[in-house]
Amino acid sequence: QHWEMLLHSLGRCTKVWIPDPDEVWRSAEIIKDYKEGDKSLHLKLEDESIYECPVDPQGKELPLLRNPDILVGENDLTALSYLHEPAVLHNLKVRFLESNHIYTYCGIVLVAINPYEHLPIYEDDVIYAYSGQNVGDMDPHIFAVAEEAYKQMARDEKNQSIIVSGESGAGKTVSAKYVMRFLATVGGSPSETNIEAKVLASSPIMEAFGNAKTTRNDNSSRFGKYIQIGFDKRYRIIGANMRTYLLGLFYELNTCAEDFFYTSQGGDTSISGVDDADDFEKTRHAFTLLGVKESHQMTIFRIIAAILHLGNLEIHVESSKDTCTILNEDEHLNNFCSLLGVDYSQMQHWLCHLKLVTTFETYVKNMSWQQVVNTRDALAKHIYSQLFKWIVQHINKALHTSVKQHSFIGVLDIYGFETFEVNSFEQFCINYANEKLQQQFNLHVFKLEQEEYMKEGIPWTLIDFYDNQPCIDLIEAKLGILDLLDEECKVPKGTDQNWVQKLYNQHTRSQHFQKPRTSNTSFIILHFADKVKYESEGFLEKNRDTVYEEQINILKASKYQMVASLFQDENNAAPSTSIRKGTAKLSIRSTRPAIKSANKEHKKTVGHQAICSLCTSLTTQQIVKILNLYTPMHEFEERVTVAFIRNIQTHLQERKDPPQLLLDFKHMFPVLFPFNPSSITMDSIHLPASLNLEFLRKV
Ligand SMILES: Nc1ncnc2c1ncn2[C@@H]1O[C@H](COP(=O)(O)OP(=O)(O)OP(=O)(O)O)[C@@H](O)[C@H]1O
Ligand SMILES: *[C@@H]1O[C@H](CO)[C@@H](O)[C@H](O)[C@H]1NC(C)=O
Ligand SMILES: *[C@@H]1O[C@H](CO)[C@@H](O)[C@H](O)[C@H]1NC(C)=O
Ligand SMILES: *[C@@H]1O[C@H](CO)[C@@H](O)[C@H](O)[C@H]1NC(C)=O
Ligand SMILES: *[C@@H]1O[C@H](CO)[C@@H](O)[C@H](O)[C@H]1NC(C)=O
Ligand SMILES: [Mg+2]
């Protein structure tokens, strides 16, 4: 069938796409036969102008064929005769601009365009309309994907995973929420436990604490989330369980706090000046629904306020440069201590001093300004991540059920690929995680597609898909970027600059690594989605993120029970994250060694916490592990939404660099291409003699 269609369209199609610096792709009609050796191709553009398109003598670089108009607007991209960049873009553009269709299938994948406005397509009656229907009978929709997962779970007795991917701001979190809402609606039970409502209530909380404003997305997820919704034998929701991967959120905390919270006034520990009363109320309501006590809620907000004050305290540098002090009356430290219920003078002392324990003696050393700043920031992040863990644990407790779970549907929503003007460690972690996710995507989708063709007897050969293993190796292999970073952290006088120099020496020949011509402090990685330049400054410190035991001990002694409890088990907490107590054996230990304090003399200092290994290997290893554990190859059902930023029109016209939309396509779609291009030979196709199409690049 596909072959027939291809033949058919080849016979009729005389239109092509030519690259254009402004419009990206322009449509053109071939108006004169091309003969071998011709130096140009005679084309008529849509504005009726004639264009002689130069072609290289070998006829290798020739325009791409345009799909027959009758196919444009198809709701499944695989129905197109030609599935290449201009074809995909054009089809999505037509659907989106002409009929406001944001959803399109591409085989088993759902492609979603972020409309950036509320469309009336998510109401309950739409949910009911999709419920029980077959995918093929309805317009593409996120609900159709959710329904399909639900149906397959019930009919085929298979657990399901829905993976939402796409760059930052593309709409992943929104999509994941719609999936959850669909499932909560169709899988809701009349019982009084109200479990669906609780499952949905987890979202605003997680967003309040795990989102932050970035230039790409006002509520960008700074954590990855895998939520597993459990069903009983009758396919009613009975509970849920969530796993999260928090990034070093602290850097954005200030803006995010502005968005949801308050600032505590003076020594007063009450919460005042709530900025966004609405969101704040929503968060509190959700907390209450999930059984978080009023007093605990207050403590949570106090802790947030305390962290903000910690970031503002004044550090005075003494005349001898290696000594710092914090005044006896520092307003911010005072607030910090009273909010957390800890001792002022001890905190004041241990923020500026370091206890060193050697075999022979114990002594106290003054910290430099930089050291104070670094350890303070590490402490703030640590407090925040402990709080985040506490919240997740509580949500999980509220969503837990003692009833045996018959099956589940998991939804994975991680932070999306991102690139800014200046990219640092956080972007590196995020993009590395996405690189790993993309690899999973490639493997699974690729395999599924091929099985599909075999089943339908469609001729196929191995498709040469974009394999990002080399890029992953560059990052995680021995002597790779992370390995060298850890090594540099261990060197007593290690610096970002030395590390980046080592990267240059080691990797300049790598396909995925570049040294920028104009900088000797940054490096470029060619990720699957984009080329990203990272500034090395701060990598070492952020990777190290050492928290000192003396500071933690003060917090442990807090007069507030909840604050104290956040820091228990500190001593045996290796940098391994036990995702949730009492569930499957999913406690994953870092494959990388814990990052020990750099300095020899620091070595004996107990209680160092290498938190940020959480951001790198652990985070991604866990995601990958979860993908593998819960989505075994042989029964993998994948639904992916790839969503894109802004509207296509703007992007095509502005031609911003890098045109993210295009880059995404380049790397998402080749995987799904239904034929091996080179397997089509012109000999096997009978063409009207008048139409010499041989020159066209067949894709
Ligand atoms: N289906 C949709 N309809 C209307 N608006 C949407 C839709 N999807 C996304 N948006 C808008 O886009 C914004 C960004 O979406 P979202 O937060 O889901 O992105 P994300 O992919 O999760 O990004 P990040 O990786 O940064 O977390 C939303 O706040 C919302 O305003
Ligand atoms: C996300 O950001 C937009 C724009 O600022 C805002 O209107 C919306 O309410 C936010 N969504 C959530 C869940 O906070
Ligand atoms: C360490 O700091 C204290 C003040 O906190 C100061 O009195 C002392 O001289 C400093 N020691 C050194 C070695 O600089
Ligand atoms: C689905 O997951 C549940 C646990 O949640 C498990 O008991 C069940 O065996 C799984 N089903 C299949 C088909 O693997
Ligand atoms: C990096 O470049 C700056 C100026 O561009 C130069 O001063 C510095 O020595 C260089 N560093 C190294 C390690 O090459
Ligand atoms: Mg998100």
TrEMBL record:
One cellular-component annotation, GO: membrane
SUPFAM superfamilies registered for this protein in UniProt: Myosin S1 fragment, N-terminal domain (SSF50084), P-loop containing nucleoside triphosphate hydrolases (SSF52540)
GO terms of molecular function: actin filament binding; ATP binding; microfilament motor activity
Organism superkingdom: Eukaryota
Keyword Heme included in the entry's annotation: no
SMART domains per UniProt: MYSc (SM00242)
GO BP: actin filament organization
Segments forming domain Myosin motor: 66-658
Keywords annotated in UniProt: Actin-binding, ATP-binding, Coiled coil, Motor protein, Myosin, Nucleotide-binding, Repeat
Pfam families reported in the protein's UniProt record: Myosin_head (PF00063)
Protein name stated in the entry: Myosin motor domain-containing protein
Species classification: Eukaryota, Metazoa, Chordata, Craniata, Vertebrata
